[in-house]
Amino acid sequence: MNSAKILFIDDDQRICRLVKRYLENNDYLVIFAHDAAQANKLLPDDTIALILLDIMLPDKDGLTLAQEIRNTSNTPIIFLTARGEVDDKVTGLQLGADDYITKPFEEKELIARIQSVLRRTQTLSVNTQNIHKTQANFAGWRLNLLNHSLHSPDDERVEITSTEYSLLLKLLNQPNNTVKREEILYILSDREWSPLDRSADMAISKLRKKIEKNPRKPEIIKTIRNIGYQLTTAVNFSET
Questions:
Q1: Sign of the C-alpha dihedral, residues 26, 11, 51, 192?
Q2: Domains defined for the chain, CATH in brackets
Q3: What backbone phi and psi angles, to 5 degrees, belong to 183?
Q4: β-sheet with 157-158: strand ranges across
Q5: What are the residues whose beta carbons fall under 8 Å from the beta carbon of 115, sequence distance 6 or more?
Q6: Model confidence over 174-183: pLDDT tens digits?
Q7: What burial class does residue 51 get, using C-beta atoms within 10 Å of its C-beta: 0-12 exposed, 13-18 middle, 19+ buried?
Q8: List of residues 6+ apart from 122 with CB closer than 8 A
Q9: What is the pLDDT of residues 13-34, one digit of tens each?
């Protein structure tokens, strides 16, 4: 039994009934808020494992609410909305959402996306000794663990995707230890590892282009031949 508690924020009663049935069919606990005001009363509940959030709320834009949530919490957020424009998806993910599902949707897709996000966030949660920290500092860089923002040593914000955030956090949690390619592939797609799959290498390459002075001669993320990758700098977790 899953028993994970999910907060669904949506003012459409029909969709709420549908999602309630889908989630309970798969042994999830679900609580509802029909506007941002109700949501803010429920959000302090630290037993909430995941938030499903609509963009079009009656009292506040869901994107704004997501940003407010992310400023104080790293609880996973999945947008579940009728707004399928590319700009909305990009904005949602940049604000720190973990996924974006467009209505209408099928039960199998919804449950699969929820399971994927929960597995990924459980795998990537910060180490126990750092659980109350909100920022990771490495090589002059700062990664905010609440809103998922990344700032350079020059204090410039560098845009990263939710996948790049997940990958970077995985490396930060294991400094000077090798993260295997199959572990990275699991973060990327939750699928079985294949020796011919180069998506892990491509993801590392994209991340290097954002944080390395010379991506062709990386100093922060080193390749461990035939095994994986290693973050070779010291990491300090602190409060923002």
A1: positive
A2: 5-124 (3.40.50.2300), 129-238 (1.10.10.10)
A3: -65, -40
A4: 157-158, 150-151, 141-144, 135-138, 235-238
A5: none
A6: 999 999 988 8
A7: buried
A8: none
A9: 999 999 999 999 999 999 999 9
